[in-house]
Amino acid sequence: MMLPHIHSGSLLFVATLLVSGCTVGPNYHKPDAPTAPAFKESAVVPPPNLPDGGWKQVSPNDSVLRANWWQIYQDPQLDKLEQQVAVSNQTLKASYAQYMQARAAIQVVRAQYFPTVQAGPSASRDRQSQNRPLHVTGSKTTYNDLFLQGQVSWEPDLWGNIRRQVEAQRATAQATAADLANVDLSLRSELALDYFELRGLDTQQRLLDNTVQQYEQYLGLTKTRFAGGVATESDVALAQTQLDQTRAQAIDVGVARAQFEHAIATLTGVPASSFSLPPAPLDLTLPQVPVGVPSQLLERRPDVAAAERRANAANAQIGVAIAAYYPTINIGGTGGFESKNAGTLIQGPSSLWSLGGSAVELLFDAGRRHALTNEARDVYEQNTANYRQTVLQAFQEVEDNLSGLRILNSESVAQQRAVASARRSLGISTTRYKGGVTTYLEVITAQTTQLSNERTAADITTREFVSSVQLVKALGGGWDTTRLPTP
Fold first, then answer.
1. N or C, which terminus of the chain has less Cβ within 10 Å?
2. Count of domains observed in the chain
């Protein structure tokens, strides 16, 4: 409709309304989340056998986990592999592309703040019917019609519909950025886990290879004693069986090692067929992991941040739903030139224009808007509950790995004593066998016990490193919410 002869005061009021508007719907407030004054397991001091291992509370002078958290293990090979994840891992690249989509979606919504402008020429050759109503005898029925015009249309954001959409998209983009950080943390921690599992198998391989050499010496000793008539043929058979069985165990370690090596290749974006890692036993020192205070989990866990940002996005969608109750305002205009001849097209008499506006209010929709608003509120409650559950899950993961490290440290102390006892037992049995006091069966039993205890000790060491990596992941690595973008 046309808006001629509007009073200047009314124009000022309308302009003020269009510029300022209002934003309907609830404003977002970060939901309360469960927390605790301290980590339960961190109150237990790690055993003194590992003074540089386990975990520690953060004091003002302590350095917290950094972005390159894997460097706390001081392993150059691990550092090199972790650097390849960001460059070559396809899962991480896919997550990054998803984040860029979310950023682009913000710009799509922001574009609604501004008018849309169209312009272009048109030309037609028309012929009117001579039998049409009101036809004037002698008038032309065939003529040219040339247009050069532009159109402007604008729907002002009076009720904050677009503002709420931008808020929702911005929060969604931040949640996607946190998802990207979480994928990065998961991939890098998975790489570290596979790496330490592989190095633990290398420790097992070294142990078994050394044991095979020892058993070869025992077999030689038994054969010498048999040739001298001191030992029996059964002793030789037992020694040979023990040797062959240990060789089989040493070969079997290669199966799991190859699988971990292939997994590392995939994580670093390299075909498994063209990737290999040289053997290197796990002889590193277990590092200290700064635990901090429980409330830091809400800042240092990317999955917690993503859940909180999605609650923000869901809250903004409530405002979008409520804005549908208010009238839709449209303002438009057209201007240009029209003529039957190209020579007179760009002239004053050929100009044309129109301005107009409309306001439309939906009067009846059978409860659709009410249902959509309730749906938006329920989605917000769902996301709020998901956020709180994510926080609870984060606390559980930290406590699980703190207790795991504590218990494994205690188990390691006991297991080292068992290894020392098994070695003494084998020494005594060997001396007794050489002196003819006992049979070779006693030596076999002592050998089996020693190997079993040494393999268990090596396995505990591997599990300690695995639990350490899982604790770092549970603490959010070196990430924090200050790294969230503000698109």
1. N
2. 1
Question: Could you list the pLDDT tens digit for every one of the 487 residues in the chain?
Answer: 333 444 444 444 455 555 556 899 999 999 999 888 888 876 544 444 544 555 555 443 344 677 899 999 999 999 999 999 988 899 999 999 999 999 999 999 999 999 999 999 999 888 888 787 877 777 777 888 888 899 999 999 999 999 999 999 999 999 999 999 999 999 999 999 999 999 999 999 999 999 999 999 999 999 999 999 888 999 999 999 999 999 999 999 999 999 999 999 999 999 999 999 999 999 999 998 888 888 888 888 999 999 999 999 999 999 999 999 999 999 999 999 988 888 888 888 888 999 999 999 999 999 999 999 999 999 999 999 999 999 999 999 999 999 999 999 999 999 999 999 999 999 999 999 998 888 899 999 999 999 999 999 999 999 999 999 999 999 999 888 888 998 8
Distance CA 62, CA 68 (A): 16
CA-closest candidate to residue 17, choices 151, 166, 160, 152 = 160
What CATH number is given to the structural domain containing 62?
1.20.1600.10
Q: Which domain holds residue 444?
A: 18-114+158-326+368-483
What's the pTM? 0.86
Q: Read off the amino acid at residue 171.
A: A
The one-letter amino acid code at 368 reads R
